[in-house]
Design goal:
Layout (H helix, E strand, L loop, with lengths): L2 H11 L15 H4 L10 H17 L4 E4 L3 H7 L11 E5 L5 E5 L3 H7 L5 E4 L5 H12 L6 E5 L5 H10 L3 E5 L1 H9 L3 H23 L7 H14 L4 E7 L19 E11 L2 E2 L2 E7 L5 H20 L7 H14 L11 E3 L6 E5 L12 E4 L2 E4 L3 E4 L2 E5 L4 E3 L8
Helix pairs in contact: 9-10, 11-12
């Protein structure tokens, strides 16, 4: 890479640190390298989560939550065993202990890695739904029909089998039982998100520093993934050069990098199952042209308006979107802001709350979300700046390090 190319990058990336410590005293070289399938948060954390879930089930007059392997499975059990053609099911009643149904040869794995002690195995030649039927009978309220909430990402095949296996139960959508619990993050969750942000910011900065003419978007994406893996936080992201950066979800392709162009990286990585989501846009080459600086600074101002305007328990999600959108519209680029302002994040890269017109949800302390305005001029280039935030007691706290204006 020529020195003047690096100077162009350094100007735009200067606010991205290579190393940053994490709050709450959680991040360490050991913690960063634990797998996301380890209940490193401690059994007491998951016990509290299940207790809160049981209270929520009772409040909603639900008797049972049924979950296939997913982030919700991991949220309550401390482990996500993954899905296959063989049935694994977590059943959490409103009263009593949780049950896992799984293949017999998986029982030991579930016991070692999850915090659920009642793990019931079925043999390969058996119908696993018979075991579900037995568990459902054990957990059913006496003398009345039970109401079972089904985790919304349950496969259709499993849902169809549940309707047959859970005789005496009414099945309903379980989203309301889990969403409220997960949308407010505790200090231990925010600490892990900070750790993922650390690794992502450092990996993006290291990847930008390695850019050279002739690299493809795929080359750069592979380097980005390696940088994340080296920091114990596996992940990856979108890498987009030039005109491709005008596509909100473009790349990576085999397009080769040339001087005097835009490079956009949208990346995320995980620590203990918790994710980050950061986008940085730079000018690769000499000093960026005036229009790029104008657009970059306008996007930055839109992001600032949303961050400064958010107030806990007062600001609706749609109002955050409006604050940022007004800045871009007043700047003459409203037609090029093509997507919502942001989304919630935690164990899923995209989860509630969504900062979008029509969403009247009020932001509460502990809600974590991205603020990512963008301007996308097809056939030319695009600029997006994305940072991760949490609503605090007094307003929006930015968890990542924002780049400086140009």
């Amino acid at each position: 890479m020529e020195r003047r190319e690096f100077l162009g990058i350094a100007t735009a990336v200067g606010a991205i640190p290579l190393v940053r410590s994490v709050g709450f005293g959680v991040r360490s070289s050991t913690a960063a390298r634990r797998t996301e399938q380890s209940p490193a948060l401690g059994p007491e954390v998951f016990a509290r989560r299940r207790e809160r879930l049981q209270q929520e089930l009772k409040t909603q007059k639900l008797d049972l939550l049924v979950i296939e392997p997913s982030t919700n499975f991991q949220y309550f059990a401390g482990y996500n065993p993954g899905r296959s053609e063989r049935l694994i099911l977590l059943m959490i009643p409103a009263d009593g202990a949780a049950v896992v149904v799984c293949p017999s040869f998986e029982v030991e794995r579930l016991k070692r890695n999850s915090v659920i002690t009642d793990v019931r195995g079925w043999e390969e030649q058996e119908d696993p739904w018979r075991l579900v039927r037995k568990a459902g009978s054990d957990l059913k309220p006496p003398r009345r029909q039970g109401v079972a909430a089904v985790e919304p990402r349950t496969s259709y095949q499993s849902y169809a089998n549940l309707t047959n296996a859970l005789g005496g139960w009414k099945l309903v959508n379980g989203a309301s039982a889990t969403e409220r619990l997960r949308i407010i993050k505790g200090p231990e969750e925010i600490a892990l998100i900070r750790g993922a942000i650390d690794a992502t910011e450092a990996s993006i900065a290291a990847t930008f520093a390695q850019l050279a003419v002739g690299m493809t978007e795929r080359d750069v994406a592979e380097r980005l993934s390696r940088e994340m893996a080296s920091r114990g936080s596996p992940g990856g992201g979108l890498v987009q050069f030039g005109a491709s950066s005008a596509l909100p979800h473009g790349g990576p392709s085999v397009e080769k990098l040339a001087r005097e162009t835009v490079v956009l990286i949208d990346a995320g990585s995980r620590i203990e199952g918790y994710t980050s989501d950061i986008t940085r846009t730079i000018w690769f080459g000499d000093a960026p042209p005036d229009e790029f600086k104008k657009v970059f600074n306008l996007v930055h101002d839109a992001q600032t308006a949303a961050m400064q305007g958010g107030r806990p328990l007062m600001t609706q999600c749609q109002e955050m979107d409006r604050l940022a959108r007004k800045v871009i519209t007043d700047g003459g680029y409203g037609q090029f802001f093509l997507h919502r302002l942001g989304h919630g994040m935690g164990m899923d890269g995209h989860e509630p709350p969504y900062l979008v017109e029509g969403n009247e949800t009020r932001l509460e302390p502990g809600m974590v979300f991205t603020i990512e305005p963008g301007i996308y001029q097809l056939g030319k280039w695009g600029v997006r700046i994305e940072d991760d935030c949490v609503m605090g007691e007094n307003g929006v706290e930015v968890l990542s390090h924002r780049p400086a204006k140009l």
